[in-house]
Design goal:
Elements: E1 6-8, H1 9-23, E2 27-31, H2 47-51, E3 56-58, H3 63-75, E4 79-83, H4 94-101, H5 104-107, E5 117-122, H6 137-141, E6 147-149, H7 154-166, E7 171-176, E8 183-185, E9 199-202, E10 207-211, H8 215-228, E11 233-237, E12 240-242, H9 246-256, E13 259-266, H10 271-282, E14 292-296, H11 307-310, H12 314-325
Parallel strand pairs: 2-3, 2-4, 4-5, 5-7, 6-7, 10-11, 10-13, 13-14
Antiparallel strand pairs: 1-8, 6-12, 9-11
Length: 327
């Protein structure tokens, strides 16, 4: 791979898994169809061929079993990377994640490490059926003991996954599936940002627009349109949902005086609510307008013909920007 090659997010994740497996023989990849098929999105394509069936393991269709086995492997010194095939399929394994994986370190008074990474393709925009387009990140962010991250570009997809695998804490790595084929530049020799550090992807002075994962591209498109209308919008890619880099968001809002938070998940009890509350506390005397949130509706994810109405897009986010600037 060229140092500055422009590649898709899917290929960047594949390259990241490959790099981690080459660096550490204790790294294993496991999940439904990850081996011979190479994953339903072909993200793990070629890994079983190169590393063998003992390190790239096709599991039964049993998410609870996948997570439970990964926990056991981690306790024996391995670094398993478990794939959940689609976001909505994670719930049969939810109990293993929140009552075992998240609690093991505290239960052992810090003496036990559980370096498990759970990869979950998430979000909508691919025209899929029920249980294939959900955004459950807030459910896991509420659970102490788990770290939650989501890349928005190829470089972050590559580096953040390796950082997650190399760490000793359980990490849920949410992959924005509708961005799998988006291309961006990857520098394999750069020094990556810290795993839980937010990044300003577009500077601005009138309003701060925060997103993560699949919504970062929408936020950047909104900022471009706003610029044509004479409005300067700063875009912050959160990158990490637990922990959240509130300092970077606060610094931006102290400069702009306005904040709009965007995510695909429902607004009701979503991650945007926590960000809005914290920034209101921290930046009360800097805010020129209430913090606004844009996201999915408090309803089951709709059939594919209606998902464009459900997902926050350019117009809905622009409307929130306009409302915030109108104060």
């Amino acid at each position: 791979m060229a140092v500055h090659e422009k590649i898709t997010i899917a290929k960047a994740i594949n390259a990241s898994l490959r790099a981690s497996m080459e660096a550490d023989p204790k790294v294993l990849v496991m999940g439904e169809d990850v081996g011979k098929l190479g994953g339903v999105f072909r993200v793990t394509d070629g890994l079983q061929k190169d590393f063998g069936e003992d390190r790239v393991i096709d599991t039964p269709l049993a998410e609870s079993g996948i997570i439970g086995t990964a926990i056991g492997l981690a306790l024996r010194g391995y670094r398993p990377v478990a794939e959940i095939q689609f976001d909505g399929f994670v719930f049969p394994g939810y109990d293993q994640i929140v009552t075992q994986l998240a609690k093991m370190h505290a239960r052992a008074l810090g003496k036990v490490k559980v370096p498990v990474v759970i990869r979950i393709p998430y979000g909508g925009g691919i025209g899929a059926v029920e249980h294939h387009s959900e955004s459950p990140e807030s459910l896991f962010a509420h659970v102490a003991g788990l770290k939650i991250v989501s890349p928005s570009n190829s470089s972050d997809a590559y580096w953040m996954l390796q950082q997650a695998i190399a760490g000793d804490d359980p990490v849920i790595y949410f992959e924005p599936k509708r961005r799998y084929h988006d291309k961006s530049r990857l520098d394999t020799e750069s020094i990556p940002d810290p795993l839980h550090k937010a990044r300003i992807t577009r500077p601005g002075s009138d309003l701060t627009l925060v997103g993560y994962g699949p919504m970062v591209k929408v936020c950047e498109d909104v900022a471009k349109v706003a610029a044509e209308e004479g409005k300067s919008v700063e875009v912050v890619d959160l990158r990490s949902i637990s922990p959240i880099d509130f300092d970077t968001v606060q610094s931006s809002v102290e400069k702009t005086g306005r904040l709009v938070v965007v995510h695909e998940a429902p607004v009701f009890f979503g991650s945007g609510a926590e960000i809005a509350a914290r920034i209101t506390e921290r930046c009360f005397y800097h805010l020129e307008a209430p913090v606004l949130r844009v996201g999915g509706f408090h309803a089951p994810y709709p059939p594919s013909r209606l998902e464009d109405e459900y997902l926050p897009g350019l117009d809905r986010v622009l409307d929130a920007v306009d409302r915030a600037l109108a104060y």
